[in-house]
Structures are given as structure tokens and as C-alpha cells.
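User: Can you predict the 3D structure for this chain?
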Amino acid sequence: VEVEEGKTITGAPTASKENAEFDGWFTDANFSGSAVTSVVAENDATYYAKWTQLYTVTLDLDGGSLSATSLYLKAGANLYNAVKELAPSKANHQFAGWFKGEDALTESAVMPSENVTLKAKYKVAYTVELYLQDKDDETKYVKADSDVTAYDWAGTQVSPEIDVTGFERNVGHEGEDASKTLSENASENVFKPVSYTHLRAHE
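Assistant: Here is the predicted structure, written as C-alpha cells:
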């Protein structure tokens, strides 16, 4: 950079380098002292760019969707904070967190001095079809206007318990799916018919 003699330069230009963070310009190659913030041009001078190595965090979305698939951090940075707002979406699933290997990422996790891969894990959806006893004909059960959707880990044994105002669970109703092990395929995770008796029938 050529500068008129005696002129003061402030706001030195930043530099860029792949997988590195620019830490400023220094007057010697050992980067002693503080970064230069202004210079008075009196004679020829050389300044040295200081860099901090950045490491790659690869995000394995496991079939999910997210705009980012990687990010770059310096060693010692809080890894949890860097990804906590990144929540991929996946049809019929609910994002359950980032994992490093088999372990969920903790709030104290820091970036090591190497590249890492984090994997997204999800809970699978299951649907409960509710049938409510007809208030005018207690021998009939009518499907509720909407089903209930919840989420849990695939492979988990689930026995849904849902509160329905004005009704109580009719446990053991003929044909009811009272319990099942959740499949990774959400279409297989449908509990029906889960029936509820109108409370007035017991008054």
C-alpha cells in the first residue's frame, strides 16, 4: 500500500484467509504487543497479519433440512452456543438436539483443535385417534374432530395418556391399541381407537 509521507492511516484494511480468523496487523513477525490501529507514514514499513485457525463443524442432518450444513469455530469456542439456534426440520419428526457420537451436546461443550461432526437426532411422531362416547347414545363412540400428535424416540414403548375434558379413558375398549413400540415410520405409529367415556355416564 502506498501512502503519502506524514499521512495518518486509521482503520487498517482487514484480510481474509480460508479457514482462519483475522486478528489484526502487527509490526513484527512474532505478533508481540497489540495490533496496529493507526499508522503515521514516515518510511517504508512491513506489517504482519495474524491469524487464528478455524476448524470445521460439519452438521449431519440425517435426512432433515437446514440452510447451513457447516460452520467454522476457533478452538475453545463454546460449541453448544454456536449451534443451539440451528434446528433442522424433518417430516413427521421433531428435532431433539445435536449429538457428538452417541452423546447429546452439553452446554459446556467446547470446540477442540480439530474438525468435528455433529449429528441431528429426532423424535418420531405418533398419532392418537380419539373416540368419544356419544352424549345422547351411550352405546356409540364418535371420532373426535382432531387427532392428537405427540413425539418420542423410535423404539420406545408408548402407552398414550391424554386428558379430555368431560371424559375419562375407557381402558380396555375392544380393538384398542393400548400400547405399541414406535417405528421410525410415523405412518405405523397410529393408536386407534382410543376411546373415552362421558363422565355423566358415571354420575
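The helical segments are 79-83. The first strand starts at residue 8 and ends at 10.
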